[in-house]
């Protein structure tokens, strides 16, 4: 019996059945109905569907700045 090296375990986040983001990111839905990966873990997706903020911050009314 041959033993093979175990495959490296890579954690991913499933946004939906077809889209995944790397661990440590957050799934956000764009205005075009397409998922994108916010580069922050537990990030806050802005209403514009384009920007996001790191955990502990929220988007301003223009969705272009992150406020504490």
Automatic annotation (TrEMBL):
Keyword Ribonucleoprotein: no
Coiled coil: none
Alphabetical keyword list: Disulfide bond, Secreted
Subcellular localization, as worded in the UniProt entry: Secreted
Keyword Transmembrane helix: no
Recorded GO CC terms: extracellular region
Residues of the Granulins domain: 15-66
InterPro entries referenced in this protein's UniProt entry, alphabetically: Granulin (IPR000118), Granulin_fam (IPR039036), Granulin_sf (IPR037277)
Family designation: Belongs to the granulin family.
Full protein name: Granulins-like
Annotated source species: Cyprinus carpio (Common carp)
């Amino acid at each position: 019996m041959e033993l093979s090296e175990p495959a490296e375990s890579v954690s991913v986040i499933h946004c939906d059945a077809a889209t995944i983001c790397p661990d440590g990111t957050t799934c956000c839905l764009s205005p075009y109905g397409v998922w994108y990966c916010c580069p922050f873990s537990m990030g806050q997706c802005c209403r514009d569907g384009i920007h996001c903020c790191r955990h502990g911050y929220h988007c301003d009314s223009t969705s272009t700045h992150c406020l504490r």
